[in-house]
Structure formats: C-alpha cells, structure tokens
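Subgroup meeting minutes
Present: P.N., E.W., G.H.
Scribe: E.W.

1. P.N. recapped why we're keeping a running log of single-chain structure predictions: easier to compare across weeks, and new members can see raw inputs and outputs side by side.
2. G.H. added today's entry (489 aa).
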Amino acid sequence: MFGHVKQDTVAGVVVFLVALPLCLGIAIACGVPPVSGLIAGIVGGLVVPFISRSPLSVTGPAAGLTSIVLVEVQALGGIPPFLTAVMIAGVLQFLLGVLRSGRFSALVPSAVIKGMLAAIGITIVWKQLPVAFGASGGLADIPSQLHSGAILIAAVSLVILFGWKQTPLARYPTISPALVVVVISSLLAEFLRGSSALGLGPAHYVDVPLGGLNALYSALPRPDLGAIANPATWMAGATIAIVASIETLLSVQAVDRLDPLKRHSPPDRELLAQGTANAVSGALGGLPVTAVIVRSGANVAAGARERLSALTHGILLLVAVLFAGALLNKIPLAALAAVLIQVGLNLCKPALFATQVKLGVTQLLPFAITIAAVLALDLLKGVIVGIFVGITFVLYENSKRAVVAVRDETGTWRMRFRRDGTFVSKPGIVSTLDEVDDGERVIIDGSGEYIDHDVKEVLATFMADAKHRNINVTLVGIDLTHAQAGGGH
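Output recorded in log:
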C-alpha cells in the first residue's frame, strides 16, 4: 500500500475533492442526513483499503443504491431499521466472499445491468428535480414551492457541469468539476443572501452537525437492532447485498481495465472488504457503500498506483467532517442536485437507448422491461424480472438454432448440431425433423456436441417413425442405446 506515497497522496486529495460533493448529494437524494453520506465515504476510505486487493478502486456511497435507500427507509419505517438492514447486507456480502461467489456476477445479462443502471438514472433525475427548483417535496410540489434563487444556482451549476469539457480546465484531470460547482454555487448563494427574492433559506443548505467529534457522534442515527426480527429487514439487507455486490464487481472490472499496470483485482476478496465496510457503515449510521466508478476513474486519472490514495481520501473526509462543518453548511442543496442530475443523465443517456435498439429485440426487450419493472416495483424485483426475460430470450434462441438443416443436390437432408442439444433445443429440432418428407434420406450429425437424453428420445422416436415412412436415417456421433422411442413426446 505504501510503495508510491507521493503519487497516491496527490491522487487521494483529488478523489477527496470529487467524493465530498457526491457523498453529500447522494445522502440528500436518499432522504437521509448528509452526515450519513459522509460517514459512508469515510468508512469506505478507512476500512476497504486494508482488506481489498483492488489497487485503484475507491469505495463510498453510490448513486446506484439511491432508489433502494429511498424505498427501504420508507418501507421499514425509518432510518434506524434501515441501518440494521445495511449491517445485514454487509454480513451477507462477507459470506458471499467466503463462499467465493464473485465470479457469478457474470451471469447477469448485460442488457439487464444496463436497464438497471438506466432506471436508477431516471429515478435520480426525477427525485432531484424538485430540489433543483427549491422544493422539498416531489414533482407535484414544484409549482407551490418554487424558489428563484435555487433555480438560478441549479442552472449555473448545470451549465458548468455540461460545459466543462469545452473549457481549458478540462485538460487538468486533477480539477473536479463537481467541486468547482460547489465552490461557485456557495459563493453565488452568499452573494444572493441579502436579496429577498433570490436569497436562500436555511432549508436550502446542507446541514452537517458542528462541534467536533462529540457533536458528530450525537447527530448520527443509530441502527435499531430489534429490527433483526422483522423479515422485511432481512429482505432489504439481501436486496442491498445483491445490488451492491453487482455494482462493486462491475466497477472493479472497469477500473482494472483502466489500470496502466493491468493488474487483476480478486473479486471474492473485494466482497469480503465491501461486506466489512457495509457492516461498519450501518453500525455507525452511514449509507451502504460500493466500489464507485466515478471516484475510481478520478483516482486513475490523478496518477494513483496503490490503495493509499483511497485511504488518503477517507482520512480527508474525516477531517472535513470534524473541522470544516461550517464550510460544508454553506453548500446549496440545489448545486448538489445539479451534480446528481448530471450523474443520473449519464446513466440513462439517449445514446444508451439508441445502442440497445441497434442490437435488436433480444437486447432491447430485456433492457426496456428491466427499466419498467424497476420503476414499477423496486430494484431487486426489477432485476429479477429482467433476468427471467433475458433467460427466456436465450432459451428461445437456443431452441430454434441448435440444428442447421440443408437439402443437398441429391435430395439428402443433412442436419448438423452446431451447439449442444438439450431439452431447450427440442422444439426447434422437432420442427426441423417435421420438414422431412416420406421416402427421403436424412443424415443427422452430432459430432463433438453434447446431446442430452431428451433430445436422444426425440431422435429415437423419429427413427421409429421413419421405418414406417420409408425414410433412411443415418446418425453420426450420436448414441441412442438407452433412448426409447416415444419418450420424447
């Protein structure tokens, strides 16, 4: 961890500057105290580097869990039972790591993951729009709670964020556009303070407890351990564990691709680290955490080489909470809403939808159905629906394309298995065999492919019928010794 102290310390400062507004903004988007987001960032920085072996990934509260937190806090009756669910999620993640389950994340179809992230992006945007307009409720409350000062600050922030790539500062990866937004919006809010029309009220600012460690400890929410007896708490914990594990492993894979040294991060070790961090974060009143691609990407761009950069960012977050609370409380919520709106729009940008359309119906439908299911139900149920839809398309494609059949110039049917013949393939195989007319010759070649018993029974039935239809059948590479005619119907 300490092999590149200079580079990693500089990178840690950069990641801290990126993480600070995101920790605050994600907590506010989740409807929990801002300090819970900061605690999650601190725990992610101080706990994970000592257990993980991912050299460049950075852990903290993730936008991808926002919709889960929003739903579960309400469903469980408040923050204390939700924190218990976060602790349960940490234990479950740790067990997944012990059971070496990291590799199974690859089983989730790509279209479903993209749909899940797009649905999360849509949720973030619609939840942050009222904050950007100065309202404290939902979209319906915007007209009655409209605040001109909040709108101005959000608009300026969005212009900076979306125009950043066109400015000379974009050439310096160590400068965080989110931090620039926070600084400029805080100065603008201070300038507008005296205006009766544009001045922000106390409810429009971040609220971090002041007074050092004792004040921080007193302000933190506590987990309600009695909620362990509630099955809904365990379901919430399982949901967090599954989604956080998937997001973590995907982020770690992406960061490994960005690593200039091309190192590989052990996925099971990462689950152990994330599980420990979530258990600690929940116990201390923090949000659930994952490895986060935005912060990790900034870490790589800043020249990090080892886990010391993530540790440095955690230390700086702790220092900021303990000694810079007064400055943090000058940050307008509208500016953080703008940062999160940009994050949300990046997750559900139109180019993603256009790509899925180009890939065809087998990718578009699982993607679209996952989005609809996540928005209509919740994140875990939506992902499960998407996985089932994805599996259905895989089964359909396998059922109709297992066998290729052509009739050559002599009138002989040549059928060849181009993939394993399983029960999934039976409908397509039966359909192909039905095309053979009486008196024809058929060569069925299964060389080099696995043919299961169900398919062998289909072939045995066809051969039994072929005797009565004067069809000449030759099998190549298929043994029907134990297959009985009629058993396949």
